[in-house]
Specification:
single chain; 8-stranded antiparallel sheet; binds manganese (II) ion; about 325 residues; Jelly Rolls; 2 domains; mainly beta; about 5% helix
């Protein structure tokens, strides 16, 4: 057989190797992975003066299921002032560990959330919101902010906001030592479903593994998963034991029905998973679309003060302007690992 010696960007298709050509067009096949990725520091600068650590998107891994963005802000002392800004095509989920976040949006939500509560905002075709810490001084803050891409059937729909304070907990059976616990923040794990509204089959769950125990985490082979380190360090028994700590994010791929996780210290991880997403997406600034044109249209609408994004309750004219578009067409990203 002739070897195809072309890079991943090449559109050359060799007639003798239709399978390879197809793989090239569709990205790598699904299956188990054990890919340890890093959270990278992203300075937000400006009036925000905050640094966040970003696990998703990664250059070669734009999504895990419908999850397309994972930032951790904190632990740090900060005065958070994220002024009104728009979103399209996604849900944002805010999951605090420490401190309080004051959320206001253009569907008249005005809420403060803290540990144990989930804020879930669905942009549909357009929403805008602000996020502040409480008071004028720097305060301890630590939270995850996640984005979930909306499927084509929902992304042009109406904006919405939900707050959940009573999320289901499940026991994670131990192979050794004490049992673990999971909070089902979004979607479904081990047959238990969060009340938060989602539009594709996914899971987002906080896992707590006691010191010195080994727990079994049940997975669905048809879904892809990743684990983000939050606190402590745990070893995941896959091809070779891999340690996840708060600097790391482990992509597990599909095709697994469980993983065993254990460590010497008490560990907190955040599990992301879901059915591989139906479409490749175009993501730029705060927007998720399918084409360059989707993004340009949303950017123009925000810059022109279009009613598409409404008005954030309790705010005047303050807003974050859209950055300039890059000089090239925005393109869809796909998994290359
Ligand atoms: Mn936002």
């Amino acid at each position: 057989m002739t070897r195809l010696d072309v890079g991943p960007e090449s559109s050359v298709v060799h007639p003798d190797e239709p399978a390879a050509a197809l793989r090239q067009a569709q990205g790598p096949e699904a299956g188990p992975r054990a890919l340890l990725l890093e959270f990278r520091a992203v300075p937000l600068g400006g009036v925000r003066g905050m640094e966040v650590h970003r696990a998703l998107p990664q250059r070669d891994l734009p999504m895990v299921g419908a999850w397309c963005f994972l930032d951790r802000f904190g632990p740090q002392e900060a005065r958070m002032r994220v002024e009104p800004h728009p979103h399209i095509g996604l849900q944002t989920a805010t999951w605090p560990f420490v401190g309080e976040v004051h959320h206001r949006d253009s569907v008249d939500s005005d809420v403060v959330i803290s540990r144990g509560a989930l804020n879930l905002m669905t942009s549909g075709a357009g929403i805008s919101h602000s996020e502040y810490s409480i008071g004028e001084d720097a305060v301890p803050l630590d939270a995850l902010q996640l984005w979930i891409a909306l499927p084509d059937s929902r992304r042009a729909g109406a904006p919405d906001f939900e707050r959940h304070v009573d999320l289901p907990h499940i026991v994670l059976a131990a192979e050794e030592g004490a049992e673990g616990e999971a909070i089902i923040v979004l979607g479904e794990l081990a047959g238990v479903t969060s009340p938060a509204t989602v539009y594709t089959p996914i899971v987002g769950a906080e896992l707590r593994i006691p010191a010195g125990s080994r727990i079994r985490l049940p997975l669905r082979p048809e879904w892809e998963y990743a684990l983000a380190g939050i606190e402590g360090a745990a070893s995941v028994s896959i091809d070779e034991p891999t340690t996840i700590d708060p600097q790391h994010f482990l992509y597990l791929g599909t095709g697994r029905d469980e993983v065993v996780i254990g460590g010497d210290t008490e560990t907190v991880l955040f599990l992301l998973g879901g059915e591989p997403f139906e479409d490749d997406i175009v993501m730029w600034w705060n927007f998720v679309g399918r084409t360059h044109e989707d993004i340009v249209e949303a950017r123009d609408a925000w810059e022109q003060g279009s009613p598409r994004f409404g008005h954030v309750v309790g705010h005047g004219d303050e807003r974050i302007p859209a950055p300039p578009l890059p000089g090239v067409r925005l393109t869809q990203r796909r998994r290359r690992v």
